[in-house]
């Protein structure tokens, strides 16, 4: 085996050195926490950073005005799923801008292969952008699913849900546009097939889509050999990204206006669903205590590091449609050409398989109506629950009809996607929609009576028999803080072990610097994930009664 000279690759050495310093520097505050774990629960932090943040906020007035203080119970990952989506979006903006530097719409496939094979770290950049898109779509679906089941769309958050549904639609559109841009055989066949199917949309929606996607072949400047629609999709890709950014801003504004949702276990029928209405709990219940700015900053940093780290790790460990051949990264997807396209069955990306399923089951017109029905029900569901089901509280046991419908949506989404993936190029027939109907009937027949007649009486009885308090909270947090000191030591060991192993891989096992980009990606992802866990333990789980800034 050949050894890599660190003098031959100074950039690699500098990068690894920076990561090493970053890892080691974090040991200090974590050891500081271990030394202080025996401190009393109500100890106040008066460190330099705390004083600086207080000084800054006294002059800017952001925390408690523009940004709401969060209660203690909200420092759980399920309350921050939206932050994961935002983190993935920011990563997509950064990597997308870098990819665009080398992308040429007039020769999309060649520019894609050039980025992967010739540009330093280009293969990892392409993999990172592609996996980041998958992560954003997946996290958005998880975020919406969680909010649905906890009733986070109920009054007065109906508009926030509608904006979120709009974000979901734009995100899927953005993913669809990005999927087409490499102009490989699989992606472009799926793209053009999707356009043909969407042309059947009723209410002149198909005509509206055609206005943006039909290009006059006599238009000046169009080059032969490449579909001129690629140029438009490249422009649309940036426009839709800007619209996503605008809706994210609106979504965050509405969120800050209403505040975080109270725990569903604490909201009885007739109780308010705004945290501002629970002033007694905010003042007396330790689990509801509004937390200082430092904890919120720590949670935000943790979320970003966790998201970035996980995507970096996946992109480095599983290069996206890339293999290393002869020491050079190669794009494995074939270029688009009309002859092979005629013999290639369309296979949309995984997040569009459930839509494709409808078009494989019934006529395109009926499939379009079914798809629009899904969209309308999703967007208007807050009003369906309020005026049709008339559920009185967000607890799942008190929302049996909504939970049954939501479960039906999830099961049918999974079944439809898997079924469509297993039958490429083949029609399914009416049995597909019939199976969907059976799924919804079974969900209602099983879930609705279980929640209505089994779970609901138990929840109501529990509320009547015991007050909604959390005794022993402070003691529990003190014990958790002591435990966190041991976890910190373990995590530091893992960080340093990961550093040593990555250096061993990069400098000893590898004799091809091209491969280093994926090793560095894996190490950086691994390191970021561990940093996020360290921050979670230090700042988020470092519980102690503390006053707001």
Automatic annotation (TrEMBL):
SUPFAM superfamilies for this protein: a domain/subunit of cytochrome bc1 complex (Ubiquinol-cytochrome c reductase) (SSF81648), Transmembrane di-heme cytochromes (SSF81342)
Molecular function terms, GO-annotated: electron transfer activity; oxidoreductase activity
Domain Cytochrome b/b6 N-terminal region profile stretches: 52-264
Pfam family, any one: Cytochrom_B_N_2
Keyword check for Transmembrane helix: yes
Gene3D superfamilies: Cytochrome Bc1 Complex, Chain C
Cited PROSITE patterns: CYTB_NTER (PS51002)
Coiled coil: none
Record's GO cellular component terms: membrane
Keyword set, alphabetical order: Membrane, Transmembrane, Transmembrane helix
Biological processes per GO annotation: respiratory electron transport chain
Ranges that cross the membrane: 12-31, 79-103, 123-144, 159-177, 197-215, 235-255, 297-324, 367-389, 401-422, 437-455, 482-504, 524-544
InterPro entries to which the protein is assigned, alphabetical: Cyt_b/b6_C_sf, Cyt_b/b6_N, Cytb/b6-like_sf, Di-haem_cyt_TM
UniProt name for this protein: Quinol oxidase-2, cytochrome b (SoxG)
